[in-house]
Amino acid sequence: MDIKLLIPLFNDEVAPRFDLATDVLLVKIRSTGEYDERIVVLPQASADDLCALATSDNAHTIICGGIDNEHYQYLIWKGIKVLDNVIGPVKIILKAHKAGTITAGSNFYSF
């Protein structure tokens, strides 16, 4: 079964705030372990639009920086796993996800 990740971006890093990101990395992880990546650019920063994108694209997990409680609870209610307060470069974060070592609050700047 394929799994999908959604990561709000700020350049090549996780966006520090969920509600201010306009670029989003969507990652499809195939059952073979291959990662397919694509970037979606939203017309404006909006937490509501990111939540809509996550639900319409059937994301399983969101990896983000700070997120307000209202949107966090909404995503959890929709069955989406949210790993919040994660900071660091996306390439390192994806490696950590592959290794199964990423958790909420992970800081990847110390690596």
What does this structure look like?
The chain contains 3 helices and 6 strands, in the order E-E-E-E-H-E-H-E-H. It is an alpha/beta fold and 111 residues long. A hairpin with a 2-residue loop joins strand 1 and strand 2. The longest helix is centred in the middle third of the chain and has 10 residues, at 47-56.
How do the strands and helices of this protein lay out in sequence?
Layout: E1 3-10, E2 13-14, E3 23-29, E4 35-41, H1 47-56, E5 61-63, H2 69-77, E6 81-83, H3 90-99
Parallel strand pairs: 1-5, 5-6
Antiparallel strand pairs: 1-2, 1-3, 3-4
Keywords:
six-stranded mixed sheet, 111 residues, single chain
User: Based on CA inertia axes, which overall geometry fits?
Assistant: globular
Pick out the low-confidence regions.
Answer: none
User: How is the quaternary structure best described?
Assistant: single chain
Overall pLDDT level: 94
Compressed to H and E, one letter per element, the order equals: EEEEHEHEH
Brief sketch in words of this structure:
The chain has 111 residues and is of the alpha/beta class.
